[in-house]
Each structure stands twice: as structure tokens, then as C-alpha cells.
Design brief:
By secondary structure, the protein is α/β, with parallel strands linked by helices. It contains 7 helices and 7 strands; from the N terminus they run H-E-H-E-E-E-H-E-H-H-E-H-H-E. The chain has a 7-stranded mixed beta sheet, sandwiched between helices.
Length: 275
């Protein structure tokens, strides 16, 4: 599980500004949830936690500050492009490259007490959550927990005429390029068919001080998605044009101070692997 240079069609970005956006979204989730590990997950000596799609590793780095130092924290991603330099990792954190949509290596099967996932909304094709759920289940010990937080981009909280118009444009573009997000709201209903008991599920909107932070980071993510759609369309010779959407986004950002609200709905689920 070393470094990767393969082309993986990731629609978001992996540059410095993209990493900053990811870290800001971690702040958003932390203020919204009020915890790193769900309170119903028991913390035990020497427990092992894996994060799939770890990105910058920010969740694991934060977990290392809030959990006992005996807890082992392992982050996996399809690319190491956003990993901090090795000498900056906390002692109980390791990061590695792994494809979470295929079977995990045999030496990782049944090794983890918790598997964490966050913000996979743009990473799954055709609403298909089965590969990553099966991957997570295989990583977990019997009785282990899956903790998943994601962004529902279908049932949004959008206010303002320009914002609502832009949301309509983006819905049509997502449909055109095959980006499907309906699975996020349905996630709690999908866990049982993969051998998980749902312990908790929630989808409460952001309120007050978090609305602006979600708007800012969501619009930054959309700018990344637009660049990713264009990048992938060039690679596949489909030539999808996004300049109209980028122009509309630019105008929306200029008028953001007038109270524009552009939020996704946070969806959370905690499941336990059946024995």
C-alpha cells in the first residue's frame, strides 16, 4: 500500500486550497457533532480505528488528541496526495494508500474495532454503496462499529433567488454527468442488508453560526467539482462545458454577504457489525 500515481477520476481537488477546504469541513462537522468518536462507541485499551477516504488525515489527527495514546489510528485513501509529511504524523497515526471499493488485503480483515467514513458523497458511482460497505464490514471485528457522516446534496437548505437558480443548474449538471447523490439520505436503510444493526441515524440541518461555514465550504467544494467535471470530460473526450456554471458561482460568491444560504444536509449513521 505505497504511493499512487494512477488516474482515479476523483472529481474534487487535491491541491493546497482543496486540503484547506477539507480541514475547514472537519471544523464544521466537529462543531455540529460535538464529538470525534460517537459516544455510544466504547473506548478500550489498544483499540484499532480505520478511516476510509482519509484525505488530509485531519479526523485521525484530531482523534489522536482526544483518545488515549494506546488507540491505533490508521487512515486509508486512494491517493496520498493530501497526506501531511511523514514526520508530522502523531505517533499512533499511520496513513496508507488503499482502494476501499475492492476487498481489503487479507492481513487487515477483522482487525478493526471502528471504521470511520466521512464526505463520500461525490466518490460513489450509480448510487452504489455496496462495495464500500462490504469493504468496511470485512475490516471490522464482530461487534465492531461503522461511523459515517456525509453530505446530502439532494435535500439541501438553499435561500436566495440566485442561490436557488444556481442549485437548479447544478442539479441538471450532476444529472448530465452521472453524479448521483440520492444514496446519502438512504444510507441508514442500506446498512442492515450488509450485516449492520443501525444504532443511531440523524439528519438535522445546520443552524445559526454553522450556516455560513457550510455555505463557504460547500461553494468551495462546488468550484472543485466543476473543475473536476471539466478535467474528467477532457480525459474521456466528452467535452462537458462548465463555464456557465463557473460564471454563476462567481456571481453567487460576490453576493454572499447579502445573506445567501447554500447548505447541504448533514447525514449521520452509526452501525454495529452483527456477530
Amino acid at each position: 500500500m505505497g504511493s499512487t500515481t494512477q488516474e482515479d477520476h476523483y472529481v474534487l481537488g487535491r491541491g493546497v486550497s482543496d486540503s484547506i477546504r477539507l480541514d475547514a469541513q472537519h471544523l464544521l462537522w466537529g462543531m455540529y457533532l460535538g464529538h470525534i468518536l460517537h459516544p455510544q462507541i466504547p473506548i478500550t485499551e489498544g483499540m484499532k480505528i480505520a478511516e476510509l477516504g482519509t484525505g488530509t488525515g485531519i479526523w485521525l489527527f484530531d482523534a489522536s488528541r482526544n483518545l488515549p495514546p494506546t488507540v491505533e489510528l490508521h487512515g486509508y485513501d486512494l491517493s496520498d496526495g493530501q497526506f501531511p509529511a511523514r514526520h508530522l504524523w502523531p505517533e499512533n497515526v499511520t496513513l496508507g494508500v488503499m482502494d476501499s471499493l475492492i476487498d481489503p488485503p487479507s492481513n487487515l480483515v477483522g482487525q478493526y474495532d471502528v471504521v470511520h467514513l466521512r464526505m463520500w458523497a461525490s466518490n460513489l458511482k450509480e448510487n452504489d454503496t455496496a462495495p464500500v460497505l462490504e469493504h468496511a464490514k470485512k475490516l471490522l471485528k464482530p461487534g465492531g462499529y461503522i461511523q459515517w457522516e456525509d453530505a446530502d446534496l439532494v435535500n439541501q437548505a438553499v435561500c436566495g433567488e440566485e442561490a436557488e437558480h444556481f442549485a437548479g443548474m447544478m442539479r441538471e449538471l450532476f444529472k448530465h454527468v452521472g453524479l448521483q447523490y440520492e444514496w446519502v439520505a438512504d444510507l441508514p436503510n442500506r446498512l442492515p442488508s450488509h450485516g449492520f444493526e443501525v444504532i443511531h441515524a440523524g439528519n438535522k440541518k445546520f443552524h445559526h453560526d454553522l450556516i455560513q461555514l457550510c455555505t463557504n465550504t460547500y461553494l468551495m467544494a462546488i468550484a472543485e467539482i466543476l473543475r473536476g467535471i471539466e478535467r474528467n470530460s477532457v480525459a474521456s473526450d466528452s467535452n462537458v462545458s462548465v463555464w456557465v456554471h463557473e460564471e454563476a458561482l462567481s456571481k453567487l460568491l460576490q453576493n454572499k454577504k447579502h445573506g445567501v444560504v447554500y447548505n447541504w444536509i448533514p447525514t449521520t449513521v452509526l452501525g454495529q457489525k452483527k456477530n
